[in-house]
Write a structure and sequence with these properties.
The chain is built from 21 helices and 33 strands. By secondary structure, the chain is of the alpha+beta class. It has three domains: 92 residues, no CATH class; 149 residues, Adenine-n6-DNA-methyltransferase TaqI, Chain A, domain 2, CATH 3.90.220; 258 residues, no CATH class.
């Protein structure tokens, strides 16, 4: 059932429908109905209750239950109903014991514990007995027999009587015994005594062999451990992973297929008295998980006899919804978090997927973690792994760059109220600046204005600063068409390269002037005809044709609204803007790869030596009309007065002539970017954003 259904708790609820009158076909099976997504939001919260089940949800849940009665055993993560066998829910809890190992040392605290023992207090002269032991403070022994012999001898020398009894001796051992992984193994009645602090409970499916698990997973790390069969328990539980409903298509598999859970533990042993304190390992906690790149930056772990899990570079470390793949050169550390060893080529995909599970239940046990469904095709794809490396490195760089910005105003060392007040004013100004700087990350129009090629960026700015409804609508339509034109120019360049020339078929497409439909047609031809583009980023246009579908929606909206009769009122235009804007914004989002392409105009190309040149010119990116100067080293010459486009990482720049040019406009005497508008009769006509035209001679003989 959904969470947040009850006043006092927000946890998810299970409803069990039990019957001992099952039909024979249903016996030995359990039907699971995944109804956690069927709820309505309450208009007003009441305690933890924020959701409720309305009539529609109740009817849907009943239909799912009825469907479950006829569902065969099995199912996929995308099914809202699945059926499992009884034995699939049964588990065995095994207990793994390790021997209790002790060394013995009489300390001041230990002597205090001895003096408070009832057996000593009831003696004739307890203060004399304790005084006899005081001379042994600071003494240590390797075995219990040596320790007890020394204690008895000291008491006898003082003329006192050492109490007897198994309970008293156990209390003495507790007072002077110190856990030590190299210490003496303790025995009781000839049987090795287990250490309760090292006891490990493991829950495993009933069908799995506990002896085989113990042999493979435990003995390699703890050769003196043993299975305590007397404490084995059987139980039944419905794992939360059984109720996972996949939002993705494709095959899913358990996390255990792609990663191994680290089960080794490092004991942080306290140093013995008189012993040099060992160098403690570095301690990786959740607060440092994303803020350090090297174990050397971590604090030392406290030597308190606790046991932590080792981790190193390349490990996947974290807990529910908060994971990080440690950098390869991270170094060694210990942690209380889960540590996974991913299979080669799957670490970043697993990290991304596990971090997307924030809305799901926390993992109460390691078994639940390893049962987490994982999308096989995405996690195992080398291309996805490479792309996610860029994504995760970008996130980390952003986190490191913003660390320390807008600090807590009271966290500094300043104590004067007037200075703190001035600091608060300064931080408030910084906050206003930060809000402006992060806008491109949140708003696709701002992002386009800041980082897309100039033609799109300038149109994005025009739309952003527009205020009147008619101006805003016109700005949206021009931004949509400008995006199509920019993509169409790239598509046309690829088609020319693919066919070896500017074919008559391509020239005919724009012979009478390029329209919105012309550019979408060229984009469609590119996706159909060009298998491997020179600019790899253009492969994104093939992804489900989403960009092309958005552009066609914008074109249809323009055609329909332009053909409307009569004068439209402002509120009607506002409605047009409200309907049109999502398509334009979605189109901009779908081509965010444009921000990683580099459009530049080469003013001159300087010779350095036989294999290196220096290209100097202007970078045509962002909306500012004063383009940014650039200088770039290359290993082959580029033609002056040409526009080139390159991808990321850099390859061989692609010459966009005669599809794009920078020229000095004879009317306004400023440099403008001109894009192809038509070609016929041995001449190409290019047009700028200011509707200025540039005509250049062009025939098939001078296409290069």
């Amino acid at each position: 059932m959904p969470d947040q259904l009850f006043y006092n708790t927000g946890v998810s609820t299970y409803l069990w429908v039990l019957s001992n009158r099952k039909k024979s076909a249903h016996r030995g099976r359990v039907a699971l109905v995944k109804a956690q997504d069927h709820w309505q939001k309450a208009r007003q919260s009441s305690g933890s209750k924020r959701k409720y089940l309305g009539p529609d949800q109740l009817n849907k849940i009943v239909r799912l239950y009825e469907e479950a009665l006829s569902t065969p055993v099995g199912g996929s993560p995308r099914d809202q109903v699945s059926v499992v066998r009884n034995e699939d829910l049964l588990y065995r809890q095994i207990v793994i014991e390790c021997p209790l190992r002790l060394r013995f040392e009489l300390t001041t605290d230990g002597l205090q514990q001895l003096s408070s023992l009832r057996s000593i207090q009831r003696g004739d002269h307890p203060e004399k007995l304790v005084g006899a032991l005081r001379g042994l403070v600071g003494t240590s022994w390797a075995t219990s027999s040596d320790a007890f012999s020394a204690l008895r001898h000291a008491v006898a020398t003082a003329g006192q009587t050492w109490p007897r009894g198994a309970a008293f001796e156990r209390s003495v051992r507790n007072a002077i015994g110190v856990r030590d992984d190299q210490g003496e193994v303790q025995q009781r009645r000839g049987v090795t005594e287990p250490d309760p602090e090292l006891r490990d409970l493991v829950v495993m499916p009933l069908r799995d062999d506990p002896v085989e698990y113990f042999r493979k997973e435990v003995l390699p790390h703890a050769p003196d451990a043993w299975l305590n069969h007397a404490k084995t328990r059987l139980g039944c539980a419905i794992r939360t992973s059984l109720f996972y409903v996949a939002e993705l298509d494709g095959e899913f598999g358990p996390l255990r297929t792609f990663a191994q859970l680290e089960t080794e533990r490092v004991k942080l042993r306290r140093p013995r008295r008189g012993e040099a304190e060992p160098i403690p390992p570095k301690h990786l906690t959740a607060s440092y998980l994303h803020s350090v790149d090297s174990a050397l930056e971590l604090p030392d772990a406290e030597l308190d006899d606790s046991e932590l899990t080792p981790c190193t570079g390349g490990d996947l470390v974290g807990r529910s919804g908060n994971w990080r793949l440690l950098p390869a050169g991270f170094g060694d550390a210990v942690t209380r978090l889960f540590v996974l060893h991913p299979t080669p080529g799957s670490g970043r995909g697993l990290c991304e997927w596990l971090n997307s599970r924030k809305g799901h239940a926390a993992y109460p046990q390691a078994r639940e973690l390893l049962d987490t469904p994982v999308p096989v095709e995405l996690v195992a794809a080398p291309e996805v792994e490479d792309l996610l490396e860029e994504v995760q490195e970008g996130r980390h760089a952003l986190r490191m760059a913003t660390d320390g910005i807008l600090p807590n105003v009271f966290a500094g060392s300043e104590t004067r109220v007037a200075e703190i007040r001035q600091f608060i004013r300064f931080i408030a100004r910084e906050a206003r600046l930060a809000k402006q700087l992060v806008r491109p990350f949140d708003d696709p129009v701002w992002r386009a204005e800041a980082s897309y090629p100039f033609h799109v960026a300038a149109l994005a700015r025009r739309y952003r600063v527009s205020t009147h409804p008619a101006e805003r609508k016109d700005g949206l339509l021009k931004l949509g068409e400008g995006t199509a034109r920019t993509l169409g120019v790239l598509a046309l360049r690829e088609l020319i390269a693919h066919h070896g020339s500017f074919t008559s078929s391509l020239r005919k497409t724009i012979g009478h002037g390029a329209t919105f439909g012309t550019w979408t047609t060229l984009i469609k031809r590119f996706t159909d005809e060009v298998p491997t583009p020179q600019l790899p980023e253009l492969l994104a246009l093939r992804e489900h044709d989403v960009t092309l579908s958005f552009l066609k929606e914008i074109k249809d909206h323009r055609n329909n609204s332009h053909h409307a009769h009569g004068v439209r009122r402002n509120h009607e235009i506002d409605e047009d803007v409200e309907n049109l804007e999502p398509y334009v914004v979605s189109a901009l989002n779908s081509v965010n790869w444009l921000s990683s392409t580099d459009w530049f105009w080469v003013e001159r190309c300087e010779y350095l030596d036989d294999s290196s040149f220096q290209a100097v010119g202007l970078r045509l990116r962002g909306s500012h009309p004063s383009w940014e100067p650039f200088s770039r080293s290359i290993n082959h010459p580029l033609r002056p007065d040409r526009i080139y486009v390159d991808g990321n990482p850099s390859g061989v720049p692609i010459d966009l002539w005669p599809l794009a040019m920078v020229s000095l406009c004879p009317d306004c005497r400023t440099r403008e970017l001109f894009l192809l508008n038509s070609i016929s009769g041995g001449a190409a006509v290019l047009r700028s954003l200011e509707e200025h035209e540039l005509t250049i001679p062009y025939t098939t003989q001078n296409q290069n």
